[in-house]
Design goal:
438 residues, 2 domains, nine-stranded mixed β-sheet, 14 helices, 39% helix, globular
């Protein structure tokens, strides 16, 4: 049994499309929200928010934990050369310790910036150690085991499908019953996983009730290559091999045809939008307002640290808004819709809308306290506008997951930050040497 936690005297914002409650409180009991509103109560731990904003924790739905330690290693390259020259060699050079350290670094950065839940894609080996890191760090989310084969043309990461499924069996056995973490199935993308293996992966996921996660239509060259190989546009092709449906999450979807958008809506396939990565890799601007208008669930993610280079949901929210205003005009994509994508949209995407995304009685107590009194946020007139366009990740005062305070007043509570820094430096150097990139 955990200790009761009371956050009082807060500007409580229960959900993106609801009004905030001034002088509000949230009571947490056994890791769940027990009460929300204006009330007084006793608790083992009481936090006086002093008028700061208390809102649902942010959810990032497209992250690569295994790439956090690659940060800055693949600059100024387009997507396919970036993968083949830098990212894939580094992923192939990972060992258990470097995966654990990289995942720990990713989790720490997300916790510091108010992200409480996630959906990650790892690499083809050592996914167990990404689970170990996320477990230790205290986050809630889904970790996808990556599937690649000879289709990608990079032999060091080509894994026989039967071996990949055996790895998934082991992950399911060890982590399938975890209270905070779930296993996902992640065939990388159409150019590195054959159609047969995509179909096998989708069948396996549905047999075991697991989510599917892949990349789609990120860049024009990718779309053209998929069309040359298959005769289909990317989303159409993925649909033909079982990679569509309410259990399928597609990262990017920057370049799609109208019939593909209709297919996404019809099949309830989710879209995971990564604004900063799309900018940095020169991928383009995804048609997010059109997706939302069509009823497609859209969420936000930072992608990997080498193509961003920050796992910062505040930056993703801001850029998500700005890019659509450049594209469609100043009225495009209001701030509340963006916060919805970063919270409730994320919860829907990872299949946890009954558990996450809003501050409601019975849901997990995943919350963040965000400073509204800094020079760059005052005068504060609307929490959505502040969160999207004024606040930064450094304004997060407290990050709470399942009622546990993971970050408070500039300090992490679950791990030794200095040890992590030293581990990152040491394993980055070793990794670069193994990959032949030092």
């Amino acid at each position: 049994m955990g200790r009761d936690l009371l956050i009082k005297n807060a500007l409580v914002w229960p959900a993106a499309r609801q009004p905030a409650i001034e002088n509000g409180s949230v009571l947490v009991r056994d890791g769940r929200i027990a009460k929300v509103g204006r009330f007084t109560a006793r608790a083992d731990v009481v936090v006086d928010a002093d008028g700061q904003l208390l809102m649902p924790g942010l959810i990032q739905t497209h992250i690569h934990f295994c790439q956090a330690i690659f940060r800055g290693a693949g600059e100024d390259l387009p997507l396919l050369p970036w993968l083949k020259k830098v990212v894939w060699p580094l992923e192939a050079a990972h060992d258990e310790d470097s995966i654990f350290t990289s995942a720990s670094l990713a989790c720490a950065e997300m916790i510091r910036g108010g992200t409480t839940s996630f959906f990650s894609i790892e690499t083809v080996r050592h996914t167990e150690h990404a689970f170990r890191a996320a477990d230790k760090m205290g986050l809630v989310g889904v970790i996808g085991h990556c599937l690649m084969d000879e289709t990608g043309g990079y032999a060091p990461l080509a894994v026989d499908i039967e071996d990949a499924l055996a790895d998934l069996d082991v992950l399911q056995e060890r982590w399938g019953g975890h209270e905070r973490l779930r296993v996902g199935v992640a065939p990388r993308f159409a150019l590195s996983c054959s159609g047969r293996n995509m179909r096998v992966a989708s069948d396996y996921a549905r047999e075991h009730g697991l989510l599917l996660h892949t990349h789609s239509s990120e860049q024009i060259e990718e779309v053209q290559l998929v069309r040359e190989r298959t005769g289909k546009y990317n989303v159409d092709y993925l649909h033909s091999v079982g990679m569509s449906g309410a259990d399928v999450c597609l990262a990017h979807c920057v370049h799609t045809q109208q019939q593909e958008r209709e297919l996404l809506a019809e099949t309830q396939t989710k879209v995971m939008h990564c604004p900063s990565a799309n900018f940095k890799l020169a991928s383009g601007i995804a048609p997010i307002p059109e997706y939302l208008k069509a009823g497609i669930t859209v969420s936000l993610g930072a992608d990997g640290a080498p193509c961003n280079n920050r796992l910062d949901q505040f930056m993703e929210m801001r850029e998500a808004g700005l890019m659509q205003k450049i594209r469609l005009g100043a009225e495009a994509l209001p701030a509340r819709d963006i916060v919805w994508m970063a919270t409730e949209g994320g919860a829907r995407t990872i299949g946890m809308e009954d558990e996450l995304g809003t501050l409601e009685v019975g849901k997990r107590a995943n919350m963040i306290l965000v400073d509204q009194s800094t020079i760059h946020t005052i005068p504060s007139t609307d929490p959505a506008t502040n969160i999207v366009y004024s606040n930064t990740a450094s304004d997060v005062l407290m990050t709470i997951v399942d009622g546990q305070i993971l970050f408070e007043d500039g300090h992490f509570t679950q791990f030794d930050e200095e040890k992590l820094r030293a581990d990152v430096r040491r394993h980055r150097q070793k990794l670069m040497k193994r990959a032949g990139l030092s």
